[in-house]
Every structure is written in structure tokens, then in C-alpha cells.
Amino acid sequence: MLSRGCVRFRRGFVPGAKNAHARICPECRLWAESVAALSGCGANFPLPGSLHARLTAVPRPSGEGAQNSPDGPCGRPPLGPLPQIPLPAFLAARLRRIPAREADRSLPPLWITRPRTMLAASYLLALLLMVALSSPNVFGKKTSRFLSRGVDLTVREAGAFGPRALLDTGASLFKACTLANRALDALLDRLSPGPASAFAPAPHAPHRKDVPSPAPPPNRKENHDGTPPAR
Amino acid sequence: MSGFPPSPDLFLARRAAAGNDEAWDQLVERHGRRLYNLAFQFAGNREDAEDLTQDIFIRLYQNLRSYRGDAPIIGWALRLSRNLCIDHYRRSRRERGWTSLTEVLLDTLPAPGDPQAEAERRQHLEAVYESLADLPEDLSEVVLLCDLQGCSLDEVAAYLAIPMGTLKSRLHRGRERLKAAVRERLSSLQIREAQDTAERSGPC
Fold it and tell me: Which pTM was predicted?
């Protein structure tokens, strides 16, 4: 009695193709070898020309009159099987090239062909590009938090419906985005007193908590001693 | 495993699906001509027949893995492209596409040498195709495939996905109606020819 695996293997067996089942099952390996040997040793003599002509004439009616008679035999219609038009050589060549052409036409990844995952991926890309290319002064902390929440949600959604690869990519991107977000937070915290100086080089600037409050800007409407300015 | 030996087409299909180009070439060699002729019957002209044949083979290639060998591969391949075939056939019937088809067929047949016999042959061929165009589509399709193209009942049943009994009944009805229609058409042609001859000779 053959097991299910053996039956499946033998049903789908193709001589020459490698299959894992044949490695683990010695009976099936022997069976496959014998079938492959049998399929390769069949005699293949050419059909003699005279016999070919006689055989091809068998299904045709005996004469022209019989072919054109309005009442065919056995209730058949007036004409017998019509002669076969030869297949044009260029068409045969085109048909032979089909496998190569189909192989060239590499299909896009599955997640691109599914609208939901494609939308999620393009949204994710747009968010990352915005974070990477835009000025933090324009979007600020609030925007970056919103972005990180959006990225998280998008990656989760895509992971639920898309292939695992997208989820992994999304997770790594999300990590990178979170790091960027933290760095941005720190930067904005440090630079919050003056938006204009957000990107000014301050390599040795101490942390905000370690320094006294900054000097008031020069256009404040009071004098240095605290008295209101004279008009 | 079933007791039937696997057909050569099944072996070829499996090898072709596994990427063996030689097997695919053999499939084209074995069935290209017949499928081209069937496509010609559906399309009615060379250009459409070539396109249809290519479409049939592309679909066949794309679905080779699912071929189980339980139906003739010709019928199975046509079944995959059933919508394309029927669209072409409907257009051909509507636009009397068989007129160019009869020309090609007459060129293919060996010349009888006698002009009258050739004219008769043309008449018969045209009468058959005109009568087929008047038959309901389900009947004409069956007669066309079985009788004019010499397809086996198994192949046609696989193509139409209908039980063998239904197919035989359709074929019988189609043959009867076609026979009557062709006979009527030819007799009316003969009467018309006789009248023309009588008019030409004139009352003396």
C-alpha cells in the first residue's frame, strides 16, 4: 500500500526532474529510475513514406464525388473533414518562442500588484521622504510625532495583509524613523528659543538646562534697566 | 494511481511546464497545425487566425501545470481560450468571415481540373458555410468542429464542457438541420440556374 506522499510523487513524476521524496523513499527512487529508463529506451523508427501516405488517406472519402456529394454517408453533412491548412512557418516560430517571451516578462512583486499594500508602501515612502527631505522647522515636533504614528499604523496594516517582507522592511524603516524622530526632538528642544538659529553651527553649545536663560532680543520694548523706553 | 498509462501529451506538458524547451517545441509540432486550423474556422481570416492561435498557445503555456491529462489537450487548450474563440466566431458569423475562409480552403484542395467541378465545389462549400451561419450557435459550433474539422467527440466535449450525451444530441440535430438547409440552398440554386439558362436560350 503506497503512502499519500508516494502516490503524490508518482502521480506528478516527470523523468529527469529532481524531487525530495525520491531521496527519502527508496521504493519510489527505484520506481522513478525504472520509469525514466523505460521512457528513454523506446524504439523510434521513422514511418516509411509509402505507409504514411496510405495511413493519411484512410480517413478521406474514396473519391472527389463522395466528398462533394450533397448527402454524405451516415447523415453527415455534405463535406467530409476539410483539408488542414499548413501552419505558417513564421507562426510556428512565434509559438516556439512563447516560453522565452513569457520568462522575460518578469512579474512585479506581489505586494505591488495588490492595491492595498501598494498604497501603504507609497504612503510609507512619501512619509519617509518628507521626514528625510523636509526642514524640521517647517513641520516641527507635532508633525514628526504624527508621522511616526502614521508610519506605525501603515506598517501594521501592510503587515496584516501584505507579505512578510514588507513587514520586515517597514519595521526596520520604522526603527530608523523613530531614531530620527528622537534626534529631531532633541534638536528642537535644544533650539526652541530661536527658530532662526535651528541649523546654526553650535558644536560646543551646552544643554539648555545647564545655561542661564538667554538674553532678551534687542528689539524688546524696554530699556536695559527695566524702565519703559522714552518716546 | 490510475490504471491508464499517461498520454504523451501529459508527459510533454509536464516537461514543458518544468522548462524543457524541446518538449514545448514538440507540443507545437504536434498540435500547432490543428489548433491553427480550428482558429481559422473560428476567426474566418488569416490575420485573426494567427493572433487567435498565438493567444491559445500563450494560455496553454501559462496553464500547463494544471493539465492533468484527463481530457485531450486540444479540447483543453481551446477550453482555456473559450471566450476568445466564441468572440471570434460570433464576429465571423456576423461579418460573413467565411467567404475568405472558403477561398483559402479551395486553394488547399487539389484542383479537379474541370471548371464545372470546381464551380460545383465552390457552390457546395459556400452553401455549407452559409447554412452553418444560419444555424443556432451551439449547433453550428458542434458540427463545425466534429464534421468539418474532424475533432473527436472527446475533444469537443472537453472544449464545450458538456456531457457526451448532450454533445451527441446537439451533433445529431445540427447535422439534420444543416443537411436540410444545404439541400434547400443547393436546389434553389439549381432552379435559379435552370431559369437563367431558359431565359438565355429564349422562346424561339
Answer: 0.53
